[in-house]
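Anyone up for a design puzzle?
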């Protein structure tokens, strides 16, 4: 069962998915993230959300989300929820853990034509992956902004071993170039530390979502239509060099949460 926030109409949906996929295509590992720098003056989260975002979407209150997640954890017996008022690391740990081995995407941050990549980082590094969409008015930009601040809390050596990967679930609207530009607004000085991903390789988006228990739903629309609703879970995946998801951070995780989990995961 997925733990995450769906912000279509303010509802929280927790689907159960379990599909495995292995695709044999040429691959390139993701690149390390250079040390983050302070964001440019005058940039706010609201500035980073396109004006075309659907007007009827609202963020899910964090307290309500945590309550729903806690119930889901107890009912499913699949996760261990850490840091509900404890001194432990925040986030979710699954038993057994999810893995991303064999999932292939196309990264448009590395070249205009795209390069086939997987989500498995080089030895000693991490991939921080998130599934979202560019017209998201609140949850996606809030999460990416908090992650940026968390990265700034790491030392230069730690930050250089992390790659931030954004996978769009809105393939009809979000082009590779637009994803790259969007991420660059959060990390303007880190062009080599981002991965702007679409499921344009051998792995279908739904297959990748099923593997990682990611939920998304796209409202019916005509090709080329600019405004339509999108719902999706809002989980950030911390992935180690074996392709294992070592921890998942739900929507509402703070910059301190991101920093603590990334630092601890780098130490193994």
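Challenge accepted. My sequence:
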């Amino acid at each position: 069962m997925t733990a995450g926030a769906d912000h279509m109409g303010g509802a929280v949906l927790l689907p159960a998915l379990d599909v495995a996929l292995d695709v044999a295509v040429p691959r390139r590992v993701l690149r390390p993230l250079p040390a983050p720098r302070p964001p440019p003056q005058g940039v706010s989260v609201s500035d980073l959300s396109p004006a075309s975002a659907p007007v009827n979407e609202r963020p899910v209150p964090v307290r309500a989300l945590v309550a729903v997640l806690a119930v889901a954890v107890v009912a499913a017996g699949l996760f261990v929820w850490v840091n509900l008022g404890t001194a432990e690391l925040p986030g979710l740990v699954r038993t057994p853990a999810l893995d991303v081995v064999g999932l292939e995407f196309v990264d448009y941050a590395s070249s205009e034509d795209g390069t086939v990549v997987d989500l498995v980082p080089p030895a000693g590094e991490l991939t921080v992956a998130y599934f979202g969409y560019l017209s998201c008015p609140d949850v996606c930009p809030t999460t990416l902004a908090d992650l940026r601040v968390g990265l700034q809390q790491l030392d230069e050596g730690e930050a250089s071993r992390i790659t931030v990967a954004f996978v769009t679930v809105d393939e009809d609207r979000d082009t590779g170039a637009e994803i790259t530009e969007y991420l660059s607004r959060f990390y303007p000085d880190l062009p080599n530390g981002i991965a702007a991903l679409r499921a344009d390789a051998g792995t279908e988006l739904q297959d990748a979502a099923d593997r990682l228990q990611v939920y998304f739903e796209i409202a019916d629309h005509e090709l080329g239509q600019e405004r339509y609703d999108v719902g999706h879970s809002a989980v950030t995946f911390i992935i180690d060099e074996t392709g294992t998801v070592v921890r998942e951070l739900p929507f509402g995780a703070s910059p301190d949460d991101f920093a603590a989990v990334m630092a601890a995961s780098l130490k193994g």
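A detail worth pointing out: The chain has one domain: 45-217+227-267.
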